[in-house]
Amino acid sequence: MTQGDYARETVYSNDPVAVARSFEEAGARWIHVVDLDGAKAGCPRNLPTLERIVSSVGCRVEVGGGARDFSSVDALLDIGVARVIVGTKIVKDPNWAALLFAKYGDKVAAGIDARNKKAAVAGWTEDSAVSALKLARRVEAQGCKRIILTDIATDGALTGPNLPFLQEIAGGVSIPVIASGGVSCLADLQALAEAKNPAVEGVIVGKAIYEGRIKLAEALALQ
User: Fold this and answer.
1) From CA 127, how far away is CA 82, in angstroms rounded?
2) Can you tell me the distance from the alpha carbon of 208 to that of 144, in angstroms, rounded to the nearest whole number?
3) 35-48 b/e with 16+ CB inside 10 Å = b?
4) Is there a contact between 115 and 104 (Cβ–Cβ < 8 Å)?
5) What is the rounded CA–CA span in Å between residue 72 and residue 139?
């Protein structure tokens, strides 16, 4: 998708397992997967495909999209997913979020998907009044171990990451933050590395790899 718009969707492959294997062959140690159908439906919709991905690669797989109750988180962990990203429910139900982080520890991450610095929910189809920074600080206080931060305006746009926003969030918490959205070339990755915020643990790259703008092996060599 581009900027979270389901009407602007591009299919790059009908074989996600083969794509995952190609990432592993290039040296990836983690693969980030989003169940887009699950994000809209409110529960995982692609468990068989996710299980095939997990069983076909040796690297760790993190999955987001539709995990809004403990049974969904358990279902994903049971098929071998290493980390489940939870977004909508932690925004809408703070009490449940505290239970989530206490129960699963570093097996879950807070997915903060932001539009105009406010958290978006339900597969980015709904906006909330919750500040992304306040949400980041709240989940840290609740025991969250890691944040996956997506800037929706840059996601899939290949216009470069929103560095000021990333620095605002990463500088406002002490837990690791993984950035997502906007990366278009190796120079963008270098800019992220040069920002030198110790909280920024990594970056998710998708469209730039699919469109040949970045070779994964070269990106990994920057580490």
Assistant:
1) 29
2) 29
3) bbebbeebbbbbbe
4) no
5) 20
Residue range 156-163: average pLDDT? 92
| C-alpha to C-alpha distance for 11 and 92, rounded to whole angstroms | 31
CA distance 163 to 177: 13
27-to-16, 40, 61, 111, 146 alpha-carbon distances in Å: 17, 31, 14, 25, 23
Rounded to 10 deg, the angle between the 16-25 and 47-56 helix axes is 30
The pLDDT confidence band at residue 9, using thresholds 50, 70 and 90, is confident
C-alpha closest to that of 170 among 151, 198, 203: 198
The fraction of the chain above a pLDDT of 70, given in percent, is 97
Average pLDDT over residues 106-117: 96
The C-alpha R_g of the chain, in whole angstroms, comes to 16
Domains of the chain: 16-220 (3.20.20.70)
> Is the pLDDT score of 152 beyond 90?
yes
Asked whether the predicted pLDDT for residue 30 surpasses 90, the reply is yes
**What is the C-alpha separation between 96 and 67, in angstroms, rounded?**
13
CA 173, CA 183: separation in Å to the nearest integer? 23
Q: pTM for this structure?
A: 0.93
The residues near 158 (Cβ < 8 Å, ≥ 6 apart) are 182, 183, 184, 207, 208, 211, 213
**The pLDDT of residue 58:** 98
Q: Angle, to 10 degrees, between the axis of helix 70-78 and the axis of helix 47-56?
A: 40
